[in-house]
């Protein structure tokens, strides 16, 4: 039986492409953290052209008409965090989930609260291009909270995959709304996330990182390697349990640990998480079980001379099936290589 297309594409990503390499389209996504330190995932429709049936972070392609100037394909700024990426991330999050990351323009530091009917009409009109996103937000008395977006890796699609993207990932912490919170507004009203009516997603739901990872590991949902890997990194810090309600201080402490983590580089190579760029490359197919091992250390073809790099510490293990990635794991690279050497030696 021929291997699934994804397996052939990813596992040959370290070789020279046989066809003309596609230009990566700029896009951005948000790891949106709830007041309970859960993370939002959207369930894409089966007919989606990107990540069909998968659970994904809110986000999508940038729009020059909505998000402002986008650097050209040969401009290095195309792969660097900037205003268009931030505006696009917030716009896509609003269109896809109904959650608007904008503050009141009265200096109160509170998230903008918009009546549901007005909000839903705005989502539809912005998605259809009937109104400019920034103009609509201003008309509602708001300003986008772009400064609160925390850059958290960039992902460049390997050259052997036809549809390529250069995706800026961000983390955004929704306000802790408990009355005991200090220096955090208690007036913010955060709407329950909703799907976009089935245009691109069928559901929008907050759950803990560990819950999402467990569901993916048990093949109950489809996660692609970037989403699985990033939640794997956050899970030790955003350690929320359904059995215990954490205090505001405990929730804030978890967030502080995430911010401290972002100041590091993870693998000792000196590239902080905000600047890490990753383009998954096939390292090997394990002989013991046929699992594909993806390395994350390469920054992508367009960033080879940039001085940026990915993560040399971890690899992603995955079985590529017809329906998508399955049986995902994130493991230490050295452990996986040592296990493979030991397995091969034992077979000799």
TrEMBL record:
Residues 23-229 form the Nudix hydrolase domain. Residues 1-25 are annotated as: Disordered. Its cofactor is Mn(2+); Mg(2+). One of its GO terms (cellular component) is mitochondrion. GO terms for molecular function: hydrolase activity, acting on acid anhydrides, in phosphorus-containing anhydrides; metal ion binding. The keyword Manganese applies. SUPFAM superfamilies: Nudix. The keyword Amino-acid biosynthesis does not apply. Keywords: Hydrolase, Magnesium, Manganese, Metal-binding. This is Nudix hydrolase domain-containing protein. The lineage of its organism: Eukaryota, Fungi, Dikarya, Ascomycota, Pezizomycotina.
């Amino acid at each position: 039986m021929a291997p699934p297309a994804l397996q052939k594409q990813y596992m040959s990503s370290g070789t020279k492409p046989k066809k003309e390499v596609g230009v990566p389209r700029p896009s951005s996504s948000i790891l949106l953290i709830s007041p309970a330190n859960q993370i939002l995932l959207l369930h894409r429709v089966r007919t989606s052209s990107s990540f069909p049936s998968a659970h994904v972070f809110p986000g999508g392609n940038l729009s020059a008409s909505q998000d402002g100037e986008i650097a050209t394909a040969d401009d290095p700024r195309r792969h660097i965090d900037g205003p268009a990426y931030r505006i696009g991330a917030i716009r896509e999050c609003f269109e896809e989930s109904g959650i608007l990351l904008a503050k009141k323009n009265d200096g109160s530091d509170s998230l903008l609260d918009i009546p549901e009917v007005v909000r839903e009409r705005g989502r539809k009109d912005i998605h259809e291009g009937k109104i400019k996103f920034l103009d609509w937000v201003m008309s509602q008395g708001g300003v986008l909270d772009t400064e609160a977006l925390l850059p958290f890796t960039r992902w460049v699609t390997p050259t052997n995959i036809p549809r390529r993207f250069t995706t800026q990932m961000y983390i955004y912490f929704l306000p802790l709304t408990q009355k005991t919170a200090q220096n955090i507004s208690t007036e913010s009203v955060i709407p329950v996330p909703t799907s976009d009516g089935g245009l691109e997603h069928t559901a929008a739901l907050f759950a803990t990182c560990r819950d999402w990872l467990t569901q993916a590991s048990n093949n109950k949902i489809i996660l692609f390697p970037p989403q699985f890997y990033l939640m794997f990194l956050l899970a030790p810090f955003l350690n929320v349990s359904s059995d215990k309600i954490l205090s505001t201080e405990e929730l804030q402490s978890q967030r502080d640990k995430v911010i401290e983590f972002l100041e590091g580089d993870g693998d000792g190579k000196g590239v902080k998480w905000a600047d890490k760029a990753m383009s998954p490359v096939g390292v090997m197919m394990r002989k013991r079980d046929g699992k594909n091992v993806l390395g994350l250390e390469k920054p992508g073809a367009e960033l080879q001379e940039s001085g940026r790099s990915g993560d040399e510490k971890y690899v992603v293990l995955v079985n590529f099936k017809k329906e998508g990635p399955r049986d995902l794991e994130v493991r230490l690279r050295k452990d996986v290589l040592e296990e493979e050497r030991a397995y091969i030696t034992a077979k000799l």
